[in-house]
Amino acid sequence: MAILSKEEAQAILKKVLSYSKADACEVSLNGSDGGNIRYARNAVSTAGQIDVMSLGVSATFGKKTGTATINEFDDASLQKVVKRAEELALLAPENPEYMPPLGPQNFAESLTYNANTAAMNPDTRADMVAKSLGVSKAAGLDAAGFLENSTRFSSIMNSKGLFAYNKSTNVSFSVTIRNKQGTGSGYVEQDFNNLDKMDTLALSKIAATKANTSAGAKALEPGKYTVILEPLAASDMLGNMFRGFDARSADEGRSFMSKKGGGTRLGEQLFSENVNIYSDPLNPEVPGSTWTGDGLPVTRTQWVQNGVVKNLSYSRYWAAQKNVQPLPFSRSIVLEGGNQSLQDLIKSTEKGILVTRFWYIRMVDPQTLLLTGLTRDGTFYIENGEIKFPIKNFRFNESPVIMLNNVEALGKPVRTGSGLIPPMKIRDFTFSSLSDAI
Questions:
Q1: Average per-residue pLDDT in the chain?
Q2: What b/e readout covers 162-176, taking b as 16+ CB neighbours within 10 angstroms?
Q3: Which of 189, 182, 223 is nearest to 353 (CA)?
Q4: Which pLDDT tens digit goes with each residue over 49-95?
Q5: What pLDDT is recorded for position 331?
Q6: Residue 392 and residue 113: Cα distance in Å, rounded?
Q7: In which element (H, E) is residue 359 found?
Q8: Minimal CA–CA distance to 114: which of 191, 42, 45, 27?
Q9: Considering only Cβ atoms within 10 Å of each terminal Cβ, which end of the chain, N or C, has fewer?
Q10: pLDDT tens track for 344-375
């Protein structure tokens, strides 16, 4: 029962709203169905199948809102959850930032659902994991990984006539492969809406190669280096920056988008001219939902153009305070690049460091977005366009804002998480100390 059609979800939502006596009522209905396999030391350790569905009701009297959730769907249970939400609303304090429900909206049809991914079953997952394990066993290495797939639906309806529905699929895979001595490690991580794009065999071969080639790492002195960031490493850095495109935190002086003395950095040249960032839920490589949880349509938005900040994200409340139109942020981020491959960027580098990924990233200074963290799972020294030898991991202290001001080249974007991110060649990247972790 976890995946309902648009018509089935609509019927339940209408029934729930018919029980409401509140001034305003919003109802959400969500479900997911999927499975997973976890493995370690070249053997499966756990496997499971998950099927869940839940309904949430938010009832409002004036500016007082109460919310209740339930996972039973008979009429008596639906009436009970509405009554409970209304009881809580009457006990709640007024919300000074309450926004009334939106009326009907027009949403584009999303591209998030793939039938092949939805059809995945335990045999499919077992075959995919077997390919990964075959790589590590044949190479005399140890693998630990996780494969998961899901099919989901989300729907909302309110007492003002708004209704939205979306169905999506996802398959994600990650694996760490190490040598028996524990001196070399490789890692890959990937997810897609479309199962046909997921190749666990090819990904595992990449991790195995890094496990072998990263053994015997040499120590380099910390300092500023030209770095080649693989897309995963670049994505690790940029996630914190994307969250900073929020107008309210910028207006209130709480982010790197805040201007000293007040105001925001909207319209400023904040990055290099070759940095262009947009989001588009209809991008076929990184499709996303075309509506937000509060019913706003999500469309293509340019956030950075030639290094200039073109837009900030506005919630409905903050947009009303600033007398502008609401603008939601989308997870379907695209950082435009060129046509160069990762190997092309390496060949163009006289001296530098190749970084597979970062981990344990923590914020140091929100005002400058200074981050600290560690390299991991394959860090290599580059000289005269070639990878010469593996190096010990570093701790870094760097801001993605500064990083995107020091861009020398951007390669061809690839899907990494929910975004399209290119490999990057960055000058003067700051490594502050060494790490003995593999």
A1: 97
A2: bbbbbbbbbbbbbbb
A3: 223
A4: 999 999 999 999 999 999 999 999 999 999 999 999 999 999 999 99
A5: 86
A6: 42
A7: strand 351-365
A8: 191
A9: N
A10: 999 999 999 999 999 999 999 998 999 999 99
**Which pLDDT score, from 0 to 100, does residue 417 have?**
78
Q: What is the band of 134 on the pLDDT scale with cuts at 50, 70, 90?
A: very high
- Cβ-Cβ contacts under 8 Å for 15 (sequence gap 6 or more): 75, 78
Category of 105 on φ-ψ map: left (φ > 0), alpha (ψ -120 to 50) or beta? beta
In this structure, the number of other CB atoms found within 10 A of the CB of residue 183 comes to 14
- Cα separation, 24 vs 32, whole angstroms: 27
- Judge whether 359 and 436 are in contact, CB under 8 Å: no
**Contact 294/316 with Cβ under 8 angstroms?**
yes
Amino acid at 187: Y
Stated pTM of the model:
0.95
Could you write out the DSSP letters of every residue in 383-409?
A: ETTEEEEEB-EEEEEE-HHHHTTSEEE
> In 3D, which of 414, 282, 405, 281 has the Cα closest to residue 337?
414
DSSP 171-224: EEEEEEEEETTSS-EEEEEEEESSGGG--HHHHHHHHHHHHHHTSSPBP---EE
Reference 172, options 129, 137, 234, 109; nearest CA is 129
- 283 DSSP assignment: -
Give the C-alpha separation, 155 to 142, whole Å.
43
